Every structure is written in C-alpha cells, then in structure tokens.
C-alpha cells in the first residue's frame, strides 16, 4: 500500500537501504523518514573501542582497557552476487575518497588489492594445506548435487532439516576440506539449516569453483562502518532524514479488527536508553513502519585484554519486538527458532590491535601472503567433533592496513573468530568463551607456531609480540549465526506479510525469493523491496538478480570441481 | 531411411527428452519474477 511517510525501527544496513530507495526511486523528501534505533551501525560496525563502550549493549559491562579498535565481524563481499548492495553504494558518496561514490571507492580499492588466498587452510605439522583438493567422495557428491539440483519451488522439502540431518548417512562430508572451507567462509554450523545451505549452493555456486583462493571475494577500503554505514548516515542526514538514536522500541499498538488478521500499526512504545524514559509514537494512516526484526549482534558483549567477554542472556532487542508482533498475528514467523538456541548460533570474535607490525610480519611469513588477502583457518590436529572429525579451531582475517582511518601507521589491526566458543583452547586450557584477549592472543600464537615453516618459530618471539599488543577485544555474540538456525519457510515473515497495510519486515530474518542470508546483499534487497512497496514502484524495477545456478558454464565448472 | 538413422534419431530424441526432463525437474526454466507479485503495492 502506498504511503507518504515512514518510521523505520533499526538503523542498520537494511533500513538505511530502504530510506535511500524511498528518496531516490520514490522521490520522497528525507523529512518524510524517521529512524528509531539503538545505534546507527548494527552489525556493520568498526570503531575505536573507547567510542562504543557507552552503547546500549556495552554500558552494563564497564571495561578497564578501552584502547585499540573493535569490529565485531570481518567482511567479505562478492560483486557478482551482491548486485543490490553495489547498486545502493553507487547512489551515495564515499566519505573517505573525494569524487567517488561508495561503490567506486570499493571497486577502486578492490581492483588494487585483489583477493588471492594462499593459505586458506593450515594444519599443524603440515603447514598450508592444498585446499583445491576438496576431498569429496561419491557419497558426498550425491547429496551436494541434489541440493544444487533442487529448484526453488521445492525448497519446503528441507523445512526443519539441519545440515547434520541432511548428511546423516554421510559423516565423511564433515571431514572434507570442502566443509572446512565452506563452514568457515560462511559461518555454517552442523546444526544450521539445510534449506539455507541449498540457497548458498545456488547463489554462491560461482564461488564453489574458487573457494580455496577466495578470488571472488571483494573488500571495502576500510572497516564496514567507515566504508559503508557512514556514507549512508551522512547521505541520509543531508537529505533531511531524522535519525533518532538511543531508542529501544519495546512494543506495538495494532488496529483492532474483527477478523484479527489485518496488520496495521497504530503506535509504538519505546525507551530512551539514555534517560530510561518511556516514549510513545503514534502512527497515522499515511505512515509505513519498516522493521528490522532481528540483529545478529544483539546482546553482544565485549571484554578486553585481561577480561573475557561476559555472557549476556538477553533475548535479542529486535527479536523481542518481533516476538510481540508474532504473538498477535499468525503469519509473522517464529523468533524462538532463531533466538532460543544459542548452542546453534553463538560465536566469539576478537579484534587485536598492536603497536607495531611484528605479529603482522610473522603471519605474512607463515602464510606466505600479504595482509588483506585472506581468511586463514587452522584445522585441529586431532578429532574434536562429536563425529570424531578434525575441525577448524579458529580463523583469522588479516586486513589490509590501515583498516581504520584513525589508525596510526605503526599500528596493526587483526580480526579473528571461533565458530564453536565452548570448545577448549589447545594452548590455553579453557573454553574460548572464557578467554581474555590476552589468552586469545596466546592461542593464536600457539596455532601459528604449529604451522610455522621456520627457520625459527613464532613462539621464540612470543614475549615481544605480547608486549606489542595495545588491546585485544573479545566479543561474545550469542546470535551471530542465528539467521542460519534450522527453520521452516514459515518461520520468517515475508518482507510484506499478507494482510499488512503498513508494516514491512527487513534484514536477515525475512523471507524473500532466492536470497541467501548473512549477506549485506540480502539485507539491502529486503529494504529495497519494502521501499518499492510503500512508494508504489513496480517490483519489475528491482535490481536484476543474476542466476549463476542456471548458467550452464558455471554448473559445468562446479561439477568438475566436485571431482578435485 | 536406413535402420542406422532411425536408431540415431531415437537416441537423439531420447537424449533431448532426458535433458528437458532434467531441466524441468531442477527448475532450470523456472521464472522467478512472479515471486515478487505478492510484494506489489495495490
Ligand atoms: C561477525 C559478522 C560477520 C559478518 N560477515 C559478513 C560478510 O563477510 N559478508 C556479508 O555480506 N555480511 C556479513 N555479515 C552480515 C552483515 O553485517 C549483515 O547482513 C547486515 O549488517 C545486516 O543488516 P541489518 O540492517 O539487517 O541488521 P543490523 O545491522 O543488525 O541492524 C539492526 C539495527 O536495529 C537496531 N535495533 C535492534 N533492535 C532494536 C529495537 N528493539 N529498537 C530499536 N532499534 C533496534 C540495532 O541497534 C541495529 O541498529 C557479518 C555480520 C557479523 C556480525
């Protein structure tokens, strides 16, 4: 239904995209758009630590050491499939490069710093593993091929099927190089949804053939906040949008109707998180409400060099609000599927800042590649999974330096993560989730020492490296992979649910055709759909989605690759 | 027409039918544009 004003709940990438399309394609004025949000970055963060310690999720966990940088995630983009994201970025100016759009900025940087991962997998005693050998056997190839061959219209066949269940007759699959690379490139866990894995096999089929080098991966010049979010924030402010931060939207008022299925928002209740005061916002007939109904960094907490990240048991802030809506209407999905099983979704990441390049140079020597090129994953040397397989202990992303505009030339910032935070370290004998930043650094040096080709060993320089650390911020994200949790198609609301007159859902917990989630691409597209709906723009005008899964050449290459 | 070309014709025909069947089963010809119909503004 066409509207002339919009209230957006959440100021992450999805809703900012919606606002840009409302302005540029719907020809709205910025002042027709108001955001209410806890912050203006969501999952796409990146900042000096001391600038974010007072934010909503952090303020109850005061930190001793606020030095260095933090970004809860490292990012990989993929131009070929991220067509909506690149379209969005082409519409706004970069904040760091003069006379360039944010898209040109990224193209320019990426062209000069092409990804070619030379050490995607490393294993103690063996060093760099040849990842191009996927290690699949006939029993693995068959179910994988079935996933690739399953059309969109039959996706429901994978309702409520986990990846572990889908491959239950084929435990060998989880010990292959293919799985090691796939799980850590995209953050799939064995409990994740097979339905989503099918979507990845379709949308990322192109990457299948080059996963060991990640050559299809594109990166922004700086962290996601400065290269993507800040250009959006600045543009939207310039256009006159009202971005109201430090607001936690806690409840809805809906129009009462006889059939009880018409979804019309008439008001919102929110808390000012600075003053704790409750505020009420009325929603009139001419206003659309665009709601990002889940955030994978909700309830995330930070530690520091000497403190582990505390575990915050809060249900996600966005999901809590989603739950309230879903309790009232039957077609708005099931947030518990995603936010009530931390065992399936949690991970721990860390952002390590050092005052010199010693560690960086050591990693470059061991992995044989320059910073900015890689995602390095360390395979355990003994079985660590329930199926008695080896698996990845930890992964690191060594950014191109500098990764922050304020970073000093002598400083280095490295990001890493543990996909299974309850597993125990090999060099620090405790679960990763209980480790301080210092202990995570020791664990990293330990893992590097196992794959060090010499001469000498990185451990010889451990004291010097530890001395160079300015800070290491562990971040616990209980819902980092929540979007991949096992689900049925009806567990997520559609971007525009049936019977909705003014409410749209955006982000990573919505149902939209074809798109795989955990991508900036799908977040943007959901916002674009919502904007087109409320501005009355035909959906035929949406950015065209390339279908590599229907390209014979790509399919043939993928088939060949399966036999490597 | 000799026997050989009949066999050839049948083989090619069967092969083409097989490919078509496979393409249909795997949604190769599925057009996903209509999937956005439900999001149109009315
Ligand atoms: C560790 C990590 C690694 C990632 N790696 C990649 C990658 O390699 N490639 C890739 O493409 N993508 C990656 N992503 C995903 C990408 O960041 C997300 O797709 C994208 O940020 C989602 O945007 P969003 O707008 O849907 O949600 P978010 O960015 O989460 O924004 C949600 C917003 O809503 C606000 N909010 C929540 N609840 C409320 C409430 N009740 N009231 C008011 N405001 C509220 C939040 O504060 C936030 O501002 C990664 C994410 C993480 C966390």
Automatic annotation (TrEMBL), chain A:
Keyword Lyase part of the UniProt annotation: yes
Database matches in InterPro entries: FAD/NAD-bd_sf (IPR036188), Oleate_hydratase (IPR010354)
Single GO molecular function: oleate hydratase activity
Gene3D superfamilies listed in its UniProt record: FAD/NAD(P)-binding domain (3.50.50.60)
Lineage: superkingdom: Bacteria
EC number, as in UniProt: 4.2.1.53
Database matches in Pfam families: MCRA
Keyword entries, A-Z: Lyase
Family annotation (NCBIfam families): PRK13977.1
Name this polypeptide is given: Oleate hydratase
Species, as recorded: Loigolactobacillus jiayinensis
Automatic annotation (TrEMBL), chain B:
Source domain of life: Bacteria
Alphabetical UniProt keywords: Membrane, Transmembrane, Transmembrane helix
Transmembrane annotation, as ranges: 6-23
Protein name: Methanol dehydrogenase
Organism of derivation: Loigolactobacillus jiayinensis
Upper classification of the organism: Bacteria, Bacillati, Bacillota, Bacilli, Lactobacillales
């Amino acid at each position: 239904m066409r509207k002339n004003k919009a209230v957006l709940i959440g100021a992450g990438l999805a809703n900012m995209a919606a606002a840009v399309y409302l302005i540029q394609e719907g020809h709205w004025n910025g002042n027709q758009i108001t955001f209410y949000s806890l912050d203006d970055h969501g999952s796409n963060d990146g900042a000096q630590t001391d600038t974010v310690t007072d934010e909503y999720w952090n303020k109850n966990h005061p930190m001793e050491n606020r030095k260095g940088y933090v970004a809860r995630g490292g990012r990989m983009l993929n131009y070929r499939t991220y067509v909506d994201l690149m379209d969005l970025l082409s519409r706004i100016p970069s904040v760091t490069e003069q006379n360039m759009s944010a898209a040109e900025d990224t193209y320019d940087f990426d062209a000069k710093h092409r990804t070619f991962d030379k050490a995607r997998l490393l294993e103690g005693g063996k060093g760099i593993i040849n990842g191009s050998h996927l290690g699949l056997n006939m029993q693995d190839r068959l179910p994988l091929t079935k996933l690739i061959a399953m059309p969109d219209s039959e996706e429901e066949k994978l309702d409520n099927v986990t990846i572990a269940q889908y491959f239950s007759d084929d435990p060998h699959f989880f010990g292959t190089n293919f799985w090691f690379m796939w799980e850590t490139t995209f953050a799939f866990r064995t409990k994740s949804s097979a339905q989503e894995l099918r979507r990845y096999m379709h949308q990322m089929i192109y990457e299948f053939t080059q996963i060991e080098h990640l050559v299809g991966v594109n990166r922004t010049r700086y962290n996601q906040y400065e290269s993507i979010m800040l250009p959006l924030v600045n543009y939207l402010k310039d256009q006159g949008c009202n971005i109201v931060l430090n607001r936690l939207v806690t409840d809805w008022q809906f129009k009462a109707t006889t059939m009880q299925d018409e979804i019309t928002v008439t008001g919102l209740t929110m808390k000012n998180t600075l003053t704790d005061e409750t505020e009420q916002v009325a929603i009139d007939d001419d206003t659309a409400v665009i709601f990002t109904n889940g955030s994978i960094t909700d309830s995330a907490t930070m530690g520091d060099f000497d403190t582990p990240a505390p575990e915050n048991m809060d249900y996600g802030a966005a999901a809590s609000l989603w739950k309230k809506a879903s309790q009232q209407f039957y077609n708005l999905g099931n947030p518990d599927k995603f936010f009530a099983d931390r065992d399936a979704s949690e991970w721990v990441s860390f952002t390590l800042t050092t005052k010199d390049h010693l560690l960086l140079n050591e990693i470059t020597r061991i992995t044989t590649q320059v910073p900015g090129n890689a995602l390095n994953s360390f395979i355990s040397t003994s079985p660590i999974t329930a199926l008695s397989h080896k698996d990845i202990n930890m992964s690191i992303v060594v950014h191109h330096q500098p990764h922050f505009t304020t970073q000093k030339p002598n400083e280095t910032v490295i990001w890493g993560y543990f996909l299974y935070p309850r597993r125990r370290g090999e060099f620090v004998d405790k679960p990763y989730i209980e480790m301080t930043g210092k202990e995570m650094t020791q664990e990293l040096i330990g893992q590097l020492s196992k794959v060090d080709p010499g001469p000498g060993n990185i451990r010889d320089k451990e004291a010097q490296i530890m001395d160079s650390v300015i800070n290491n911020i562990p971040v616990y994200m209980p819902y980092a992979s929540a979007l991949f949790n096992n689900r049925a198609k009806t567990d997520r609301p559609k971007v525009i649910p049936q019977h909705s007159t003014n409410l749209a859902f955006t982000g990573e917990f919505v149902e939209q055709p074809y798109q795989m989630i955990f991508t900036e691409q799908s977040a943007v597209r959901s916002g674009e759909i919502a904007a087109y709906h409320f501005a009355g723009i035909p959906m035929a005008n949406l950015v065209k989605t390339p279908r590599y899964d229907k390209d014979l050449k790509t399919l043939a290459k993928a088939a060949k690759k399966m036999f490597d | 027409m000799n026997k050989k070309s009949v066999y050839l014709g049948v083989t090619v025909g069967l092969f083409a039918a097989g490919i078509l069947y496979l393409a249909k089963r795997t949604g190769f010809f599925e057009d996903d544009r209509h999937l956005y119909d439900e999001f149109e503004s009315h």
